[in-house]
């Protein structure tokens, strides 16, 4: 990924927060048929042995047959993004030398993928994913809430996925290359909008100096 220095994000807490807040990832790999990709939620986990991403796919999805265990893959997490109009820039009135752009935050995770076929391992992955995504429910749903026979049937229809992380790279393109008056005016313009993505982007933007 091309990352100019002023857009680089290396803070581990910030990178982890974006992954947790925007877990629906694009997973890409290069196989015998060329480059391919799929889309799935992934959970970031850490341990003494290193960081991992966990997920699962349908057994009918041939990715677990096409990609050998240990092969390199790339997981892309897309954070908030916004079109930035030239009208947002305070300097437009001064000299007019402004053009549209797109602001965004993304995280690229590179690592080696391993597929899990053991029912107990798959169940552990599902429990971790469910615990994360049910955490905002008044009464969180758990796998044990479904009939065991039904659960066992579903477990036979999926394959677990573990990505052992080699590197995490972030790019926060948030108008840092603009003069301070434009950074302020972009923030003000986004503040006037009511959509969730604008609010999320403002939360990521550093305070103008």
Automatic annotation (TrEMBL):
InterPro entries: Split_barrel_FMN-bd (IPR012349), TR_PAI2-type (IPR007396)
Polar residues bias (residue ranges): 191-200
Region span, Disordered: 176-209
Pfam families in alphabetical order: FMN_bind_2 (PF04299)
Origin: domain of life: Bacteria
PANTHER family: PROTEASE SYNTHASE AND SPORULATION PROTEIN PAI 2
Entry protein name: FMN-binding negative transcriptional regulator
UniProt source species: Arenicella chitinivorans
């Amino acid at each position: 990924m091309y990352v100019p220095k002023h857009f680089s994000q290396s803070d581990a807490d910030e990178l982890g927060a974006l992954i947790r807040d925007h877990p629906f990832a694009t997973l890409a790999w290069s196989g015998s048929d060329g480059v391919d990709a799929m889309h799935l939620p992934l959970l970031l986990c850490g341990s003494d042995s290193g960081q991992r991403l966990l997920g699962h796919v349908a057994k009918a999805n041939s990715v677990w047959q096409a990609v050998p265990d240990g092969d390199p893959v790339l997981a892309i997490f897309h954070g908030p993004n916004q079109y930035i109009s030239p009208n947002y820039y305070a300097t437009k009135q001064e000299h007019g030398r402004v053009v549209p752009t797109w602001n965004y935050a993304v995280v690229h995770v590179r690592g080696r993928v391993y597929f899990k076929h053991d029912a107990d391992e798959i169940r552990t992955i599902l429990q971790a994913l469910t615990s994360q995504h049910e955490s905002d429910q008044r009464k969180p749903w758990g796998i044990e809430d479904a009939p065991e026979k039904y659960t066992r049937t579903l477990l036979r229809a999926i394959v677990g996925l573990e990505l052992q992380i080699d590197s995490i790279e972030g790019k926060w393109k948030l108008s840092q290359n603009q003069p301070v008056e434009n950074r302020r005016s972009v923030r003000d313009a986004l503040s006037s909008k009511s959509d969730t993505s604008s609010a999320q982007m403002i939360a990521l933007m550093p305070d103008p100096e």
